[in-house]
């Protein structure tokens, strides 16, 4: 058994090439990053790892991160939560994040463990798929962005979504906490 003060094992992030701690769902994230690049046609440059964002919750600034934010031709398209364990328990958090990251909602929210995924239409909140294959390719994402304009989130819903996101986000374990403003 490791002593509490011993450092974590590390690995090299597939997208960034940086050394990261092998804690929480990090191995799952590496599998998702590889899958997006090798199977779905995204470039490494399309994927933001540990995407920083800030929101206002009940009048206070709150800063956090999303595991992966995937863009197509410079437009953010989907937010991805890489999880260990039950995917269902993460769906609401990543959906809220996808609604809040930009002025307009990202089309998709995904929670994934590296071998199974739940894909959610951000605007409706409905599941659109329950497999890795349901994650759209870069070409399919490009087609989606051409055919469906990005939807804004009403101001009154934005505050509620921010509260929901923060509530889930503060319960995270086995990860480095995001910086607080």
Topology:
Elements: E1 10-12, E2 19-21, H1 26-38, E3 47-57, E4 60-72, E5 75-82, H2 91-100, E6 108-112, E7 117-121, E8 127-129, H3 138-147, H4 155-169
Parallel strand pairs: 5-6
Antiparallel strand pairs: 1-2, 3-4, 4-5, 6-7, 7-8
Helix pairs in contact: 2-4
- Count all strands and give the number: 8
| Spatial order of strands in the largest sheet | 3-4-5-6-7-8
CATH topology: tt1808, chain A
Number of helices: 4
Give the helix proportion (percent range): 25-40%
Shape: globular
* Known CATH architecture: Alpha-Beta Complex
Q: Bin the strand percentage.
A: 25-35%
Instruction: Provide the structure class.
Output: alpha+beta
- What is the oligomer described by this structure? single chain
Total domain count: 1
User: What is the radius of gyration?
Assistant: 16 Å
Order of helices and strands: EEHEEEHEEEHH
Low-pLDDT ranges = 173-181
- On the 0 to 100 scale, the average pLDDT is 88
> In CATH, what is the class?
Alpha Beta
The largest sheet is: 6 strands, mixed
Q: Span between N and C termini?
A: 36 Å
